[in-house]
Specification:
142 residues; alpha+beta; 7-stranded antiparallel beta sheet; 3 helices
Length: 142
Amino acid sequence: MNSSLVHKTLVVQLQAGDTDRFPVLAHLSYDAADPFAVTVVFSHDGRVLARWRLDREMLAAGLARPVGVGDVRLRPVSQGVWGELRIELFGDVRPDGGRHHAVVFAWAPAIAAFLRETHAVVEPGREEVRVDDFLAEILASG
């Protein structure tokens, strides 16, 4: 196994409407080659529902306090004895002018454990951006 990669699959709760929740899988991955990002792929019954790239530092901050003002908003919530991370995701604009919107609840200790594993790969504050690689990627896609 490559020690620069971290993967974890969690069962999370997708909130449909105002009250109903149903379980979906969240496949979290971290790659030291992209040290600031965590990729989350949500799936249900073998189908990919959505793929999001989240800021690792923001994900960690969301366990302690509300963060985010754009497409991704995170905040800790208590559900009885459970500590959860509320993940609010805003997608593309719909034909009616509204935006696709999903709310996911993840067990906070599982997210914290995943982040600890990523910190063992690349410590917070020790991330490096390979500017030359980044520029080459931008120029190649242009």
